[in-house]
Amino acid sequence: MNELWHVYLSAWPTVWARETTRYVVAATLMATILTLFWRAGLARRKLQPRDPVHGQWRREFLASLRTAFIFSLLGAVVAVGDHQGWITIYKDFRQAGPLYLVLSLALMLVVHDTYFYWAHRTRHHRRLFALFHRTHHLSRTPTPWAAYAFAIPEAVVHGAFVPLFLLVVPMHGLGLLAFGIVQILRNVMGHAGTEVHPAAFGPGRWLGWNNTTTHHDLHHEAGRYNYGLYFRWWDKLMGTEHPDYPRKFEAIVLPASGTTAPAGADRLLARALAYVMAGGLLLSADPVHAQEGPVGRWVTPGAAAVVEILPCTGTAGLCGTVRWLWDGMDDKGRPRLDIQNADASQRARPLVGLSILSGLTRAANGGWEGRIYNPEDGQTYRAILRRPTADTLTIEGCVLFICQKQVWRSAGSLAAALQ
Ligand SMILES: [Zn+2]
Ligand SMILES: [Zn+2]
Questions:
Q1: Are residues 186 and 314 both part of a single domain?
Q2: Whether residue 8 is found in the same domain as residue 22
Q3: How many independent structural domains does the chain possess?
Q4: Which of 290, 320, 348 lies at the terminal end of a domain, its last residue?
Q5: At which of 267, 290, 313 does a domain end?
Q6: Which residue spans within 278-410 are E strands per DSSP?
Q7: Among all ligands shown, which has an atom nearest to the Cα of 226?
Q8: What is the pLDDT of residues 220-255, one digit of tens each?
Q9: How far is CA 342 from the centre of its chain?
Q10: Are 244 and 329 members of one domain?
Q11: Ligand nearest to the CA of 223
């Protein structure tokens, strides 16, 4: 139990930073694009004559920060599920390949759209609306800052999607990252208040199966229509699409007769969207996976032992515990004990469960430095750990059974080989 809390608490700060940064960066980019391209053509794409009310963006911003916090509380559960093996976030491409990556991402978006449509339509039920959804609809003329402007119960419903989906479908870390970027970009675009999609997104055109800003803006304006998130499928199928949607989109993106500016505006918008995508990709990059430390389960040479490295209990730094030994039992079938320990009172401790790495902290040279206990001779040594690749950990010093530099392999790579 204690261990699960440690996994949860050590994952949470990164998840929180990621959720918050993702929102702030995407909403800022969208707001910047609106400002930069306003005179170049966006002004005539404004969807409602009324303006956002004074101070609205501040309310949307604060509610969105609260939502990012709730998302992080739910998102850190994913780290626990991954650690426990309840869900699979695989790290090695060889396990499934690029086709699976693309298909699993597409599936995740389609399932998310379905989850969103039905949960959203349910929130509009008169008995549920006040508790779940009124906060979001306080914005009649939404701004990009409204992307996460939800009441707490609604934020919980949204935030539960990723953990629930991962219970069923294994995803690569990159697929999850791409999902997070697509989700927030489509979200801020939907709330831009000004049509930012190129004309190709128009109903009947090649990207017409997608939602647009006009589509979701009509939902904020009229309420009873357009519950979908990314796609129009469910609204079309269930007859909940605003009857005026196709006409309104065409009217807003097509150049008015006698003007020349908007043809260029479309090209400018396409370019701006490309910048947003690139910016989102750069800034939403996952810092945990980019520079993962030695946290994880590791297999020592010859598969002699499995050692798990986690944040220490009660003290700073990382600690490592023996989780499994190839030769864990003696001839009589009893667990092997720490019989070489210099301290006689410690000799009855079983080797499995023994903490052998302690106080690992980041060293100036980019590695991790701490102490390692060698049950072979009962001595404790200084150890330097490095993680040159996602799959390998090098340990310099005296380790488990040999005194030298060793390469430990991630337990995930061994598990993959055994399948
Ligand atoms: Zn709604
Ligand atoms: Zn909305």
A1: no
A2: yes
A3: 2
A4: 290
A5: 290
A6: 296-299, 305-311, 318-325, 355-362, 368-374, 379-389, 392-396, 398-399, 402-403, 406-410
A7: 1
A8: 998 889 999 999 999 999 999 999 999 999 999 886
A9: 47
A10: no
A11: 1
Q: pLDDT digit string (tens) for 326-365?
A: 888 888 888 888 888 888 888 888 889 888 898 888 876 6
Which ligand gives the minimal distance to the CA of 124?
1
Cα 136 to middle of ligand 2, angstroms: 6
Domain hosting residue 233, numbered range: 2-290
* 89 and 171 share one domain: yes
Is residue 33 located within the same domain as residue 137?
yes
The string of pLDDT tens digits covering residues 263-322 is 566 777 777 777 766 766 665 554 444 346 888 899 998 888 999 998 887 777 889 999
CA dist 387 → 88, 278, 343, 358, 370 (Å): 22, 29, 32, 17, 15
* Closest alpha carbon to 216 in 206, 235, 229, 199: 229
Do 196 and 225 sit in the same domain of this protein?
Answer: yes
Distance 246 CA to ligand 2 centre (A): 19
CB atoms within 10 A of CB 311: 18
Q: How many Cβ atoms are within 10 Å of 100's Cβ, its own excluded?
A: 17
pTM (2 d.p.): 0.66
- For 2, list phi and psi in degrees, rounded to 5: -55, -40
Distance 148 CA to ligand 2 centre (A): 9
Q: How far is the CA of 34 from the centre of ligand 1 (A)?
A: 24
Tokens (6 digits) for 267: 């090209």
